[in-house]
Amino acid sequence: MPTARIFQRPKNAMQSGKARTMTWSLEFEPAEPKRPDPLTGWAGSGDTREQVRLSFPTQEAAIAYCEAQGFDYELIPAPERKLKLQAYADNFR
């Protein structure tokens, strides 16, 4: 049985916005290791499930999908959001 990872995407570190951080993603564990292509040297494998990435509005919807399809799943908790309060005056202390 394929094993799926269910997680909530973290905020992009390069931007201040929180777009796509409220959705839950489902990715499959790789079934076989990647190996270099003899001609180009690029890493690849014959596992096509590695290319599948599904999005769900809630954690419960992602879990329900895995249970309906018979997939084993690993739930990765959402990263804790830390607020770093800053003031312009802190630059001069």
From TrEMBL:
InterPro entries: NADH_UbQ_FeS_4_mit-like (IPR006885), NDUFS4-like_sf (IPR038532)
PANTHER family: NADH DEHYDROGENASE [UBIQUINONE] IRON-SULFUR PROTEIN 4, MITOCHONDRIAL, NADH-UBIQUINONE OXIDOREDUCTASE
Superkingdom, taxonomy of origin: Bacteria
Primary residence: membrane
Cellular localisation: Membrane
Any one Pfam family match given in the protein's UniProt record, by short name: NDUS4
Keywords: Electron transport, Membrane, Respiratory chain, Transit peptide, Transport
Protein name: ETC complex I subunit
